Amino acid sequence: CPEGIPIYLIQELGDKVKVPQVRELCRDKYARQKVNVEACTECGECEEKCPYHLPIHKMLKEKHILLTA
Hints:
Protein name: 4Fe-4S ferredoxin-type domain-containing protein
Pfam families: Fer4_17 (PF13534)
Organism: marine sediment metagenome
Domain 4Fe-4S ferredoxin-type: 31-62
Largest sheet: none
Number of strands: 0
Shape: globular
InterPro entries: 4Fe4S_Fe-S-bd, 4Fe4S_Fe_S_CS
């Protein structure tokens, strides 16, 4: 990501935040990131480079909502 968004970490935290025992830990770790999904410029570079052709931008937005709720 040209903006420095830690895509893998956000995907991982967004999956783990659904587990009640680690929910606050995940949200705290996300909040401490210098760059998060809000920095996304929607350039599409992440989706172009994804070998699985995933809708990364959409996925990151969903994870952001979970991690900031």
